[in-house]
């Protein structure tokens, strides 16, 4: 079985610009070792749904299966009041940073089957409930959260938001929008589709070898919770939340609010400068430095003396992207650091959790491009970008487009490392220009291949520059981005002019 590994992300808004097209060396295309007919997609978030759409459109694959550990599609856009059980991340440096919100717990014998018959036994019911929550893990949303990127940008190409949607939609609307997209694709949880398995977590992905030891595909160990079959656990990867957004939202009812900001985090590639973000933080927020380590809360701590005082308090961690794929332990190597290749036959994908490496175009694992990753980048227009990355995966795997040779992919990768200032946190961060350049690159490459192979031509990504321009300026100036009656998608041009004028006046 072949695998697309999918990770959804909450997009940081960027705007598209024209950028130059980089020449692709196509002289010796990469040759796959076996015909790709079956695809497993891990995760039914926006990236998973977009890659499913691209893959199923091709009428090439015998089988496409999505595995989603939650009971619904939509990935991170699923709010619930549930609390996560403790996560297996310890404090400080030097521990296993690649760990995510669960660790694999694979029984020695597979298939494994465990039947819970709780009846009136409350402690068994509690255990069942705890396992159910652990299996899917609550998502990093909070009750009052609104989208931090405007609806016209956070929109699946070819599947529009309904008329009249607010630009800064409440998360429940984004969730309903994604569920309706899943319904449109026929893979929502009520659709009885055999292409998708909900409540199903991928515990382990390993190579399937033939009797001569050659790889012929991949094997997945799955754990389904509601109705156990092939037993076993593990997790997916990260935690993300917009820290400035949180402090805005909680300040109306929080007694004290601290915002931890890393020094030197003012990356010039950011689509919006740090000062602009920080200007929207409520004035009664106290800025503190980077958190060095997490400790248990002392009984009588005092924040002003460097100890923590939390009486009935809550700490919210918005610690940014952390990359971990616990179901791919063979591609973790936490002893690799810096910008060097690892001293191993196959290169690691995850090292210290700050980035993913060894991917061509941030997508295809170069040592075995039957593994692909979608939605790893930060700073991209996730809903739009996913269409093109999904098309690239679907077209390459169905033979309608080709990757360059492994050597050329590695050359490209190391060039990228150099251009982006090394393998570190932010490596996958695309600024406006890089976002736009990548999208144009996908379009030019895939269309050139389509002309040869008779595929459909892809249109250019929608230009949301003006929308983003207005949005960013409005946010930076503290202008409400959700004025009623002025936010219909159908009236963007008109709205923009009004907003522009309004913002100029404010300034
Ligand atoms: C209830 O379930 C727990 C296991 O979670 C078990 O130890 C206990 O014996 C059960 N109680 C009864 C009355 O069956
Ligand atoms: C903090 O500031 C926000 C917005 O400026 C305000 O609504 C809130 O009441 C303030 N909270 C406290 C505790 O003063
Ligand atoms: C915390 O410590 C400071 C300095 O010692 C003191 O002034 C303050 O009253 C303490 N706060 C609490 C809540 O104990
Ligand atoms: C903490 O919450 C409990 C229950 O709501 C309340 O009885 C207690 O007084 C609170 N303690 C403080 C210090 O606010
Ligand atoms: C991990 O990387 C180190 C440093 O390059 C290397 O010596 C080691 O063999 C690697 N481990 C595995 C399991 O590949």
From TrEMBL:
The entry's keywords: FAD, Flavoprotein, Oxidoreductase, Signal
InterPro entries linked to this entry: FAD/NAD-bd_sf, Flavin_mOase, FMO-like
Highest rank taxon of the organism: Eukaryota
Signal peptide: 1-16
Pfam family of the protein (one): NAD_binding_8
PANTHER family assigned to the protein according to its UniProt record, in alphabetical order: DIMETHYLANILINE MONOOXYGENASE
UniProt name for this protein: FAD/NAD(P)-binding domain-containing protein
Organism from which the protein derives: Kwoniella shivajii
């Amino acid at each position: 079985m072949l695998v697309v590994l999918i990770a959804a992300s909450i997009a940081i808004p960027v705007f598209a610009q024209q950028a130059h097209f980089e020449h692709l060396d196509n002289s010796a295309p990469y040759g796959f070792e076996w015909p790709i007919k079956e695809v497993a997609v891990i995760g039914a978030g926006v990236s998973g749904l977009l890659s499913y759409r691209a893959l199923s459109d091709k009428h090439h694959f015998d089988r496409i299966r999505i595995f989603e550990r939650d009971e619904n599609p939509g990935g991170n856009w699923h709010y619930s009041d549930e609390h996560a059980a403790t996560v297996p991340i310890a404090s400080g440096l030097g521990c296993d940073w690649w760990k995510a919100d669960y660790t694999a717990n694979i029984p020695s014998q597979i298939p494994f089957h465990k039947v819970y018959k709780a009846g009136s036994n409350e402690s068994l019911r509690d255990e069942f409930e705890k396992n159910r929550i652990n299996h899917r893990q609550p998502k990093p949303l909070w009750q009052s959260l609104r989208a931090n990127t405007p609806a016209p940008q956070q929109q699946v190409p070819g599947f529009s938001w309904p008329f009249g949607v607010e630009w800064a939609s409440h998360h429940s609307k984004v969730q309903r929008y994604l569920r309706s997209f899943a319904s449109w694709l026929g893979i929502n949880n009520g659709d009885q589709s055999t292409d998708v398995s909900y409540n199903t977590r991928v515990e382990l992905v390993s190579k399937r070898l033939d009797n001569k030891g050659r790889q012929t595909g991949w094997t997945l160990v799955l754990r389904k919770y509601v109705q156990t079959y092939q037993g076993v656990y593990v997790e997916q990867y990260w935690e993300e939340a917009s820290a400035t957004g949180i402090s805005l939202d909680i300040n109306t009812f929080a007694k004290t609010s601290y915002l931890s900001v890393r020094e030197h985090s003012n990356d010039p590639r950011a689509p919006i400068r740090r000062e602009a973000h920080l200007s929207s933080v409520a004035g009664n927020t106290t800025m503190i430095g980077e958190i060095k380590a997490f400790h248990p809360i002392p009984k009588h701590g005092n924040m002003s003396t460097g100890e923590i005082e939390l009486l009935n308090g809550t700490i919210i961690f918005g610690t940014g992207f952390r990359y971990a794929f616990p179901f791919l332990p063979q591609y973790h190597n936490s002893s690799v650091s810096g910008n060097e290749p690892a001293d191993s036959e196959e290169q690691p994908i995850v090292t210290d959790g700050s980035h993913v490496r060894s991917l061509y175009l941030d997508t295809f694992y170069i040592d075995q491009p039957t593994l692909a990753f979608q939605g790893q980048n930060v700073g991209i227009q996730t809903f739009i970008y996913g269409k093109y990355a999904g098309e690239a995966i679907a077209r390459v795997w169905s033979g309608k487009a080709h990757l360059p040779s492994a050597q050329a992919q590695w050359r490209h990768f190391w060039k990228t490392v150099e251009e982006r200032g090394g393998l570190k946190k932010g490596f996958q961060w695309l600024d406006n220009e890089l976002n736009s350049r990548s999208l144009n690159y996908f379009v030019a490459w895939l269309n050139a291949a389509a002309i040869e192979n008779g595929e459909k031509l892809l249109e250019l990504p929608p230009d949301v520059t003006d929308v983003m321009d207005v949005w960013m300026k409005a946010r930076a100036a503290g202008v409400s981005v959700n004025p009623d009656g002025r936010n219909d998608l159908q009236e963007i041009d008109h709205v923009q002019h009004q907003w522009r004028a309004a913002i100029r006046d404010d300034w």
